[in-house]
Every structure is written in structure tokens, then in C-alpha cells.
């Protein structure tokens, strides 16, 4: 399961919410939320924003780890938006390319 789905589960547990309760708070159908977890794919940014709005948290709070808040630049947000629309094979290629840029194997 993706980090995002695990985090949604964690936040639901903290609130005592079921997937049904989350769906109601998001004004969504319980089927849509169930399908999200059944597919075990990374939710889109739009879906994550809706989850955050329902839970009354920001995206930075959603991605907060060990008390450290993650603040993204506009370029980082754009990169994630583009990444999230890719299929899994394209995501793997994008990660390999970015790693290659970071370690100097590819020219920018």
C-alpha cells in the first residue's frame, strides 16, 4: 500500500473514522473510497486535497513525519502533480531519470 493510503488509514484511526465516515465527510460515495483502498494505488493530488479538507488539515500536515512539517516549493508541487498522473511504468522511468540526474549519470 502507498504511503498516502497508509497515512489516510492512520489519520482515520486517530479520528475513529471508518472509510464510510471519511466518504461522508468528503461528500463522496463509500464505493469510491473502498475502491481507492482496493486498488492500492497512490491517490491523486485532487483526492488527497479532498481528504485533507474533510479532515481539516493541510497537505503539509498530511505529509508531516516525526514532527517535521514538509513544505514544498511551487516546482516541487508541479513535479508531484505531473508524477501523479503517470502510470506505474512511467513513474519508474521518471524515478530512474531523476536519480540519474541527482547522481550525475545524466546531463540536465
From TrEMBL:
A Pfam family reported for this protein in Swiss-Prot or TrEMBL: HTH_26
Top-level taxon: Bacteria
One annotated GO molecular function: DNA binding
Keywords: DNA-binding
Magnesium as UniProt keyword: no
TM stretches of this protein: none
Domain HTH cro/C1-type: 8-62
InterPro entries documented for this protein: Cro/C1-type_HTH, Lambda_DNA-bd_dom_sf
SUPFAM superfamilies registered for this protein in UniProt: lambda repressor-like DNA-binding domains (SSF47413)
The protein's name: Cro/C1-type HTH DNA-binding domain-containing protein
Gene source species: Enterocloster lavalensis
Amino acid at each position: 500500500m502507498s504511503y498516502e493510503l497508509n497515512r489516510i488509514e492512520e489519520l482515520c484511526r486517530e479520528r475513529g473514522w471508518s472509510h464510510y465516515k471519511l466518504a461522508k465527510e468528503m461528500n463522496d460515495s463509500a464505493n469510491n473510497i473502498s475502491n481507492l483502498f482496493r486498488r492500492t494505488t497512490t491517490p491523486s493530488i485532487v483526492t488527497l486535497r479532498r481528504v485533507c479538507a474533510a479532515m481539516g488539515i493541510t497537505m503539509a500536515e498530511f505529509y508531516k513525519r516525526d514532527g517535521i512539517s514538509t513544505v514544498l516549493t511551487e516546482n516541487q508541487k508541479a513535479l508531484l502533480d505531473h508524477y501523479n498522473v503517470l502510470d506505474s511504468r512511467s513513474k519508474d522511468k521518471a524515478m530512474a531519470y531523476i536519480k540519474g540526474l541527482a547522481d550525475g549519470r545524466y546531463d540536465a
